[in-house]
Amino acid sequence: MDTSTLIHTLDARYYTHKDIFKKERNGVLTQTWQYAGHVSQLKEVGDYFTFRIAGENLFCIRLKDGSIRAYYNVCQHRAHELVSGSGNCRTIVCPYHAWTYALNGQLLTGPNLSSVPGFDKSKICLMSVKLENLHGFLFANLDPESAPMDDWFPRVRTELLEYVPHIAQLKPYRVINFIEKCNWKVAVENYSECYHCKFNHKSISSGVFRTETYDIQPQGFCLRHTAECQNLERMHYPIDLNANSTAGKYSSWFLWPMFSFQVFPGNVLNTYCWREVDVSNVDVFRGWYTVDGKESTVIRDLSNLDHETTVTEDVRIVESVQRGLQSRGYRPGPLVLDPEFGINSEHSIKKLQEWMIGNYSP
């Protein structure tokens, strides 16, 4: 059999070598849009929260004019971290030597600065990071020359509003955080195909969407998942098909490299956010949203069921794959590329792996 024309998975070293992980932290992960947090975390002037991208410590803060900025979390004096966790401040004061910055990042004052000849505080400012607001979800990019998110992810802004008409009213209701013992690319590859779903995800396949309708298509640097909802009598939760034109549909927008909006039938928004820890561990944040973050028995029960089934099943899968990638007995296998696409094809993995080793700007 001639296998020369087959397209194979990436070599195991892409998931196991520390040198490749280091290159990613200095390359793709610094050149792409990644999730920072939600605007509801910054209600008042001076509210801030910290986050990490590509190993960099960063923070978002709300300014006096109501705008939001993101900065590297480092003092421009002697490199001490400025803030931790979340909170509120009128000015940003470094804990080390009390250098003090305005919310817009400009240096205001510091002990004994007037004694330094020629010292011009107007020339010292915190380093900002590109930030965009996508329906209340804040995304940052460490590349100052990066194209806007709408260039990277065409039509996603419009489609999200179509599938979640009330998205402006949503706030985080529940965020479940856990570690997967695998390379971040193993985790997002597993999320980005449903070839494994009917064998491993009985719950979501039988009670959320109909697997025979599942498809994944690239849309810029987005992988768009679509499916029809399961028969109403089999759904895990009640939905009103007459609520709007998308109520009976499942859709997901995986935004390269480590975030996904996922809308369950009934216009239920949930998200995945992955954060690389090291070459063989990834931090996962599974988010669920309700209007104003209010209590919802339906969403609580659904999120519990999701964690007990689909999430737990995926953790088992990706950790097994990571162990297998370290085996001497593994050789990259061919991808299953069905010309008809659909649930039994791995076209999405082919596209994802092209992004992993290719050009990282749209």
Structural overview:
This protein has helices at residues 13-16, 18-26, 149-152, 156-163, 184-191, 197-200, 202-207, 297-325, 347-357, and strands at 34-38, 47-53, 56-62, 68-72, 86-88, 92-93, 100-101, 107-109, 128-134, 137-141, 170-180, 215-219, 222-228, 249-255, 259-264, 268-278, 281-291. The strands form three sheets. Strands 1-10-9-4-3-2-5 form a seven-stranded antiparallel β-sheet, with no helix packed on it. Strands 11-17-16-15-14-13-12 form a seven-stranded antiparallel β-sheet, sandwiched between helices. With 362 residues, it is of the alpha+beta class. The protein has nine helices and 17 strands.
Helix content: 10-25%
Low-confidence stretches: none
Strand order of the largest sheet: 1-10-9-4-3-2-5
* Count of individual domains: 2
The CATH homology group name of the largest domain: Naphthalene 1,2-dioxygenase Alpha Subunit, Chain A, domain 1
Helix-strand topology string = HHEEEEEEEEEEHHEHHHEEEEEEHH
Average residue pLDDT: 94
CATH topological fold name of the largest domain:
Naphthalene 1,2-dioxygenase Alpha Subunit, Chain A, domain 1
